[in-house]
Amino acid sequence: MQKAEFIIREFKPTDLNDVVSINRKCLPENYAPSFFLEHHYENPKIFLVAEVDGKIAGYVMCRMEFGLSNFKKMFARKGHVISLAVLDEYRRRGIGYALMKEAMKNMAESGASEVYLEVRVSNHPAISLYKKLGFKPVKVINRYYADGEDAYLMAVELKETTPT
After folding, report:
1. Which residues belong to any copy of the N-acetyltransferase domain (predicted)?
2. How many domains would you assign to the chain?
3. What is the pLDDT of residues 134-158, one digit of tens each?
């Protein structure tokens, strides 16, 4: 199969049905449509979609927070990756990586000094992707998910400019 080209762009409200559908197909954690719209209106530069031939193939939804650093004993402006999903038929093409790189760059430009996320301890492909992006496991959060599965809290410190 030929590798399809993709573009990364900001989410638009007209993408909502596709993003909700991807969320439901790919992840056990499902969010209400209003949750996606709320994140879009609060953080439009860090809610991104990947488009292949006019079809939404994946998304990353993030938010900015202020709280204790995952690296230093101080407060920090942090980016939080809330949800990342790519449809099965578009996986292993670099789409998840590209979505994360662009979101991390945009979070750095918004003043984040670090980015963190939670990931199921059983989700080895996602953990591998996050490690490739420089994330490190910070701690295990016991019974984080509704089904009782543990999560890794993973984080990465951002440089002044994130390399491409």
Report:
1. 6-159
2. 1
3. 999 999 999 999 899 999 999 999 9
Ranges of beta strands (E only) in 16-125 are 47-52, 55-68, 75-86, 114-120
Could you list the residue range(s) of the whole structural domain that residue 151 is in? Answer: 7-157
Amino acid occupying residue 28 = P
What is the reported pTM?
A: 0.91
Q: How far apart (Å, rounded) are the C-alpha atoms in residues 76 and 68?
A: 6
Residue 114 · residue 79 · CB < 8 Å: yes
Q: How far is CA 145 from CA 27, 28, 29, 115, 117, in A?
A: 12, 9, 8, 20, 13
* End-to-end CA, the chain: 26
| C-alpha separations of 130 from 1, 55, 97 in Å | 26, 25, 8
